[in-house]
Specification:
Layout: H1 3-22, E1 29-33, H2 39-47, E2 52-55, H3 58-65, E3 74-77, E4 95-99, H4 102-114, E5 119-125, H5 141-148, E6 154-161, H6 173-189, E7 200-202, H7 209-214, E8 219-222, H8 224-227
Parallel strand pairs: 1-2, 1-8, 2-3, 3-4, 4-5, 5-6, 6-7
């Protein structure tokens, strides 16, 4: 059995245990993060049953899309997104995780509208207030969602965050709790979201996904946990 397959089995087991221990019993989507990973290793991951793929960089996503298009997979744009890169996403991605700016949202709306498509997005929250991280303040989330309601080609599906990196994952718990509380508050009280479709809380990575699942994550983004330590080995194609 390959290392990648072993890793995926272990991660799925951990997700199941974390979900059950919290009493949530929710279906948690595992996104395999492909940043710097070559096509052969990504294909191996797909062959192990991972059909949701996340990419941090638009260029890598576009280069990897065609060689892997024979698979039944969904691509997620999970990294920071510049307005001039939005044009490469229609028809390629199922979900954009990193919307935190009105101008970016407007560009997504315009670009997807040209293709008669609706963009499913997540609103990125800077839950810890880190200066080095993207995302809007939790206190600004409802106002931001209200502004998004003017766009006909955007569907807000939920929230996303990246917790601070810490040696002890337990230290992330309070941040994930706050994200879940914000998620529920928006879902229950905000008139400009559709409750049934505002159902995605994307939080948790290799270091902290078990804590995130225990605190209500519905989607985790894992690369190193699947592929091992990253190397800049991607050469395109």
């Amino acid at each position: 059995m390959s290392e990648i397959k072993n890793n995926i089995i272990e991660i799925k087991k951990n997700i199941k245990a974390a979900s059950e221990s919290s009493g949530r019993f929710e279906n948690v989507t595992l996104i395999g993060v492909t940043k710097t990973i070559n096509i052969d290793r990504i294909q191996e991951m797909i062959d192990c049953g991972i059909t949701e793929l996340g990419e941090n960089r638009v260029q890598e996503l576009t280069e990897k899309h065609a060689p892997l298009s024979h698979n039944k997979i969904n691509w997620h744009m999970i990294g920071g997104l510049q307005k001039n890169k939005v044009k490469f996403l229609p028809g390629r991605v199922c979900l954009i995780h990193s919307v935190d700016d009105y101008g970016l949202a407007a560009e997504i709306d315009k670009t997807f509208g040209k293709h008669n498509l609706t963009a499913d997005i997540l609103i990125e929250i800077n839950i810890a207030g880190e200066e080095t991280k993207h995302g809007i303040k939790p206190s600004a989330c409802r106002e931001f969602i209200d502004k998004l309601s003017e766009f006909a080609n955007i569907n807000a599906r939920g929230l996303m965050t990246i917790a601070p990196y810490v040696q002890n994952p337990e230290e992330t718990r309070d941040y994930f709790k706050k994200m879940y509380e914000l998620f529920v508050d928006i879902r229950e009280k905000c008139d400009n979201v559709v409750r049934d479709s505002f159902n995605v809380l994307s939080m948790g990575m290799t270091n902290d996904y078990r804590i995130a699942v225990e605190e209500g994550s519905t989607m985790v983004r894992i690369g190193t946990g699947i592929f091992g330590s990253r190397q800049n080995n991607y050469q395109g194609g």
